[in-house]
Amino acid sequence: MSDIRIATAEDQILLDKEAKYCSYGDTVHYIEPPRIFSRCEGSYVWDTEDQAYLDLQMWYSAVNFGYANPRLNNALKQQIDTLPQIASQYLHKGKIELSEMIAVDAKKKFGLDGRVHFNVGGSQSIEDSLKVVRNASNGKSLMFAFEGGYHGRTLGASSITSSFRYRRRYGHFGERANFIPFPYHFRGPKGMTKEEYGSHCVQQFARLFETEYNGVWDPKTNQCEYAAFYVEPIQGTGGYVIPPMNFYRELKHVLDQHGILMVSDEIQMGFYRTGKLWSIEHFDVQPDVIVFGKALTNGLNPLGGIWAREELINPKIFPPGSTHSTFASNPLGTAVGLEMFKMTNEVDYGAMVMAKGKFFLEGLQDLQKRFPIIGDVDGLGLALRCEICGPDGFTPDKATLDYMVEEGMKGDMVVDGRKLGLILDVGGYYKNVITLAPSLEISYPEIELGLKLLEQLLVRATKR
To answer: Which residues pair with 421 in a beta bridge?
Structure first.
């Protein structure tokens, strides 16, 4: 096992400048010294010493299709040479065709007419969805959201994100959320199957509507004080928690009974991360609004957006000027988004992702059998989780996972004579979950390599 890594002289000059000139408001140094990276390709990134790291988090699932994907990069390059810029009040082909592609797909899957509205990223698109929801509900600013849910850090988005630390200094800006327990079966009550626990959580939520004294429902007017329920079908920052398959169907029944919209936040789990275009598709429900971002452009352009039902977003109810961003629906982003859709429609991309995810999950399950500190593994497509616990296999162990992350970033593990590092992401309610989001283009040998590197980190963790 290597000693603590020391920054090179060149890197240290840059780190000194960062310490003096860069805001730390959007900076987290998970390791010291922080790595500075110089290039990337496929499932790998290289630091300034040309040390390779296998990346199993892919920019928080923004780079679903691999670093420097040639086809998507070329779409961006071609657009740069034709129409790289145009003000968003003017039309261009990419905006119209990408909107059509998303809306037609939603009609086919959900049987609903709808429209697409673009913005410059996930949090900004959450803000737009809040406008759509408030407008459709006569200005209601209260929302339901889940414990463990994450929807962004802009003022509105942080108000419906369950972590108080993201809004502690800034207060609330209109929206407020009632945070409802998510069916996190591994840490739920014992004695229930996963499906039984899902139904139990829905039943507990439905109790809020039994009487006016539960504080959300007026039975005399049949009106709820809350406008929408914001859901991540599979929790992202919360630790890639996968609910039972019956959960959203039963939850949507309660929402529909009381006129509450369902907003599906697909920013992290969309674009085939779970083996389907939208992760909500696994659960046999019709969302009222879908919010997307990240992998739409494979991280090449900050383009996000929303799809909403026609009744919520048609020009009569949501007229011109309702929201605006200078760079929304920009032609560089829409060109990459269109190419991404064409690329994933040419093969059965969902089946490919599900097969790779099954293979990866089986490898994680094998590691779980051999390492008692792995309390839980689960996965849907290539959204996978590995929960690190104490010797009892249940008590959260953040310290051990932090150690594993630091060891992975040393770049000193050896597999088949090749020295490598491993990039992992940390999530979960207790920050003890490895949230695995590899490139959807990852090869089977690279999955095997990732499992071997994880095994080395687990061996180091148990022997330290």
So the answer is: 53
Span 258-315, pLDDT tens digits: 999 999 999 999 999 999 999 999 999 999 999 999 999 999 999 999 999 999 999 9
Q: With b meaning 16 or more CB within 10 Å and e meaning fewer, what string describes 343-375? A: bbeeeebbebbbebbeebbebbeeebeebebbb
Tell if the pTM clears 0.85, that is, is over it. Answer: yes
CB-side neighbour CA atoms (13 Å) of 115: 15
Tens-digit pLDDT profile for residues 33-78? 899 999 999 999 999 999 999 999 999 999 999 999 999 999 999 9
CATH class, range 75-345:
alpha beta
Exposure string for 103-137, b = 16+ CB within 10 A, e = fewer: beebeeebebebbbbbbbbbbbbbbbbbebbbbbb
Q: How confident is the model at residue 252 (pLDDT cuts 50, 70, 90)?
A: very high
How many residues are present in the chain?
464
Write down the domain spans for the chain. 9-68+348-463, 75-345
In the three-class reduction of DSSP (H, G, I as helix; E, B as strand; rest coil), residue 203 is classed as helix
**Spatial distance between the Cα atoms of 379 and 357, rounded to a whole number of angstroms:** 7
Q: Do the beta carbons of residue 305 and residue 116 sit within 8 Å?
A: yes
**Distance of alpha carbon 127 from alpha carbon 182, whole angstroms:** 23
Judged by DSSP in three states, 188 sits in: coil
For the domain 9-68+348-463, what is the CATH code? 3.90.1150.10
Average pLDDT over residues 68-89: 96
Contact predicate 281/248, CB 8 Å: no
